[in-house]
Specification:
With 224 residues, this protein is α/β, with parallel strands linked by helices. The protein contains 10 helices and 6 strands. It has helices at 34-39, 45-61, 73-77, 82-87, 105-113, 126-139, 156-169, 176-184, 190-203, 205-217; strands spanning 25-30, 66-71, 93-96, 118-123, 143-147, 172-174. Strands 3-2-1-4-5-6 form a 6-stranded parallel beta sheet, sandwiched between helices. The chain starts with 24 loop residues before the first strand and ends in a 7-residue tail after the last helix.
Length: 224
């Protein structure tokens, strides 16, 4: 067993600085577009859409800065996912020609303008449009959290290997619901309680149904 310094006197009830918060993170949505969904075969596409919209609503609930990006929207890939656009109807969309979003100056400037160092990243396809900006952002000092279920690859193997490649480089794999609950982190935070449980009920599947049941049958403030 490896020995390490441990001072029990320093242990306290406090969150790790590694945790995502509304004040230290931003979300980057990359290429959630029809043409990209047509080629996505690593999982159920309806589930990916549900996770993407749930993630977007989490950002809105906690006022987390968001950058939306598409690739060749008018010439090939089509407009951004309409359900995602509905969450941010007035938000500027950075359209690119580059497969690597991090090679687009406007996109990088938009990320920099948020002032955040933790990027919560999702998109299509995992093996191209996620890997390339993830590795590029990591190389420049950002922390990258890849939302696996709000992303998809051409095949299950492509998605899995891309996730492994990003993780090996230092990215952190997460899920959309994990992000939502990490942002809330305490059910006593009443200012975001209702918004959080609303997103769970709308996109959390069986868990959301359980919250609906608990609030209907037990207590209007029941959670989890």
């Amino acid at each position: 067993m490896t020995e390490f310094a441990f001072d029990v006197a320093s242990v306290q009830a406090a969150p790790s600085p590694d945790l995502l918060t509304p004040d230290n993170s931003m979300m980057l949505f990359v290429d959630h577009q029809p043409q990209m969904f047509f080629g996505a075969g690593s999982g159920d596409r309806v589930a990916v859409i549900n996770a993407t919209v749930g993630l977007a609503k989490a950002a809105k609930a906690f006022d987390v800065p968001v950058v939306l990006s598409t690739v060749a929207a008018e010439s090939f890939s089509g407009p951004i996912l309409p359900q995602l656009r509905e969450v941010f109807p007035e938000h500027e969309i950075v359209d690119r020609t580059s497969m690597n979003a991090w090679e687009d100056t406007a996109l990088v400037d938009a990320v920099k303008a948020t002032g955040r160092t933790k990027i919560i990243l999702s998109g299509l396809w995992t093996e191209v449009c996620l890997v390339l900006p993830a590795l590029s952002a990591l190389n420049q000092g950002y922390e990258v959290y890849v939302v696996a279920d709000a992303s998809a690859g051409v095949t299950p193997a492509a998605h899995e290997h891309a996730m492994q490649r990003m993780t090996a480089a230092g990215a952190v794999p997460v899920t959309w619901l994990q992000v939502l609950l990490e942002l809330q982190r305490d059910w006593a935070r009443t200012d975001t309680y209702e918004a959080t449980t609303t997103v769970v009920k709308e996109h959390g599947g069986a868990y959301g149904l359980g919250v609906f049941y608990a609030q209907s049958m037990i207590d209007p403030h029941a959670a989890g």
